[in-house]
Design brief:
Elements: H1 2-23, E1 31-35, E2 44-48, H2 49-57, H3 75-78, H4 90-104, H5 125-142, H6 145-149, H7 156-160, E3 169-170, H8 205-210, H9 236-253, H10 274-294, E4 314-315, H11 317-321
Antiparallel strand pairs: 1-2, 3-4
Protein name: Photosynthetic reaction center cytochrome c subunit
Function: The reaction center of purple bacteria contains a tightly bound cytochrome molecule which re-reduces the photo oxidized primary electron donor.
Region (Disordered): 56-75, 342-373
Length: 373
Amino acid sequence: MKIFFTVLGAAVAFFLTVAMIGLTDWDRPPLAVQQNGYRGTAMAQVHTREAVAEKKEANLAPAPADPAEPGDDLAGTTYENVQVLKNVSVNEFNRLMVSMTEWVSPEQGCTYCHNTENMADDSLYQKKVARRMLQMTQHLNSDWKDKHTGGAGVTCYTCHRGQPVPANIWFTDAGPNRPGGFTARNNGQNLAKSSVGLASLPYDTLTEYLADKTIDNNVIRVNSTTALPTTKGKPIQDAEKTYGLMIHMSEGLGVNCTFCHNTRAISNWSQSTPQRTTAWHGIRMVRDINGNYLEPLTSTFPPNRLGALGDVPKVNCTTCHNGQNKPLNGAHVVDAYPELTKSTETASATPPAVPANPPTMPATPAQPAPAPQ
């Protein structure tokens, strides 16, 4: 009997193997490979063509509204209680309002922000938030243009994608309710959280690295810049937090580590790609948005729009990028809306300064630029 079952099992295994090899499509899917580093360093982004096409389709920028008719009347003198777009012509103002409705609240319409019985009324919190978001958009397109947003710029649609509340926002993670005693402290780890790719890493790195505008810029670091320790150094927990942030950025942009880093020398700036400098500024830009534009709105938002700890909704890399290294396929979305490319605000504080270039870290001599592919 034992021999019978042995032979039977072998026969079943043989036929299953034949079926698996003969009936399964083992062809490798067509790949889209983009080299973004030096030859021989395997610095490339590899995706299936199907995934690239799907992502591109999901990130199409909306067509701009028809150009506004010329006119000399200003919105600030024609309408009541216009604070941010005071010096924009009436026709340009109305065109932008229609576009904002399509970008943010296509189903709710104007009533999402306005009391249509009295358009000058500020009773709806959405109108107060929208006013500040307009100022933020102008700030991003003017003060951050050279450092991060570039000529493509951003509009309300970049984050909202036709929804009143952007899909990719976040709140400070309070973590689980834990009992007291020796097991109360878990270093913010060992919880399956999407913010760190479901890894066993600190699950709330965003609050420290993307929400604290006063953070020490040297805190995001994995290894030392010297061969031997010269200071107390960073604990291993800080390195784990840094890895958590890097995972978030990788998934938010739909790229791997080699998009910015040469993995043979992660900390070496001279062997990194230009995208690393852009990302360096992007981290600081997100802190600027969260710390200077969203956090001050805490008292403006109703309790149901706040997080478990009473904090406002905040942005991260995914909010704009949505899984692509360039939001909305790199479309120059502000070209058709010049009123969003410069500051026209009259009722807000001076925007915070944009940080200078990233520090130059000890590095080997610069390598030649990668050959075009």
